[in-house]
Amino acid sequence: MFHHIQLVFPSSLTSPRTYIGGKAYGMQSKASVISRINEINSKEATVVLQDKLISTDLASMGLAIDGEATVQKATSYRWYERLLPFSLLSTNNQSDFVLTTIDEAKASNFAKSLNQYNSSAVDASVKLENLQVTVDPSKNGFEYKTEVVKSSLPRDTLPSNLAVSIPAAVSKPAIPTEAAQN
């Protein structure tokens, strides 16, 4: 009996075990899921920098989730799969968020805005306090280069936690802490 249900299962509904971005969207109309996925575009994303986390919306990074493509990718249930008994229940559709094309102008502005997080390397220093020699530790410097930032933005999919890691060029101090301690 169930085998007959899956043959006529409406294509306007998501299959029972559909997960997009780690959340369950099973047995819902595709139109409502697309609408809910598109709403994620206005949510804050986490940008993981070398030494801190910042939040910004996806649009300011030049990114946008394509709700229709995301749902299409997650709800693929081809006609020949319907012929397999209980395939409707055994099909586990999982997908990350599918991105539309990147807005290069916004991506460039975002990359340039990360310059405020650039820092110079700090050498270790030795000082004498109350007849005690103390060492102030060294710190690495970080530089977020525009082209590296732009190339590190996701191009195809976005993970469910909406986190984007941005690499930095690291500059080492001339006098590391270990050298100052000796």
Account of the 3D structure:
- Helices cover 30% and strands 23% of the residues.
- It starts with a helix and ends with a helix.
- By secondary structure, the chain is an alpha+beta fold.
- The strands form five sheets. Strands 2-1-5 form a three-stranded mixed β-sheet, with helices on one face. Strands 4-3-11 form a three-stranded mixed β-sheet, with no helix packed on it. A two-stranded antiparallel sheet has the order 6-10.
- It has helices at 2-7, 30-39, 67-74, 79-82, 87-90, 104-113, 146-152, 177-181; strands spanning 18-20, 23-24, 44-48, 53-57, 93-95, 97-98, 125-129, 132-136, 141-143, 157-158, 163-165, 169-171.
- The protein is elongated.
Blueprint (SSEs and pairs):
Elements: H1 2-7, E1 18-20, E2 23-24, H2 30-39, E3 44-48, E4 53-57, H3 67-74, H4 79-82, H5 87-90, E5 93-95, E6 97-98, H6 104-113, E7 125-129, E8 132-136, E9 141-143, H7 146-152, E10 157-158, E11 163-165, E12 169-171, H8 177-181
Parallel strand pairs: 1-5, 3-11
Antiparallel strand pairs: 1-2, 3-4, 6-10, 7-8, 9-12
Helix pairs in contact: 2-3, 6-7
Provide the spatial order of strands within the biggest beta sheet.
Answer: 2-1-5
Query: What value does the average pLDDT take?
Result: 87
Strand pairing plus helix content: what structural class?
Answer: alpha+beta
Helix percentage: 25-40%
Ends distance = 80 Å
- Quaternary structure type: single chain
